[in-house]
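Task 17 of the worksheet. Students: predict the tertiary structure of the chain below and write it out as structure tokens. Keep your answer in the requested format; marks are given for formatting as well as content.
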Amino acid sequence: MDIETVREYCLSLPLTTEDMAFGEGNLLFRVCNKIFACLSIDGTDYLALKCDPEYAIELREIYTDVEPAYHWNKKYWNQVSPSRMSDKELLMSLIRHSYAQVASKLPKKIRSQYPEICEIR
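Model answer:
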């Protein structure tokens, strides 16, 4: 999956915004101002995604393309190489999982105001 396709998919999720708070080499995707993905756009080809800790370990054991995210809390964040990942459905599933992990931790007031963010799985 190329950078633009990953970007478009992330932005297709409800209430997603993007910014470059970490500098011009990294594109951050947020739901209600909370980061759920960090896409490298400087040529290093990585996408950091939040993950349930047990699922993160399971993914790393099963898929060689999934590894602990560099510069992120390795308990909660995995990283993949979008252009080298052969299973595009898996990549989209990991993006949705990351989004859902972050959305589920938003305050109840926000979740009830925007129920569409809780529908992503």
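Marker's comment: The mean pLDDT is 93. Residues 88-104 form the longest helix (17 residues).
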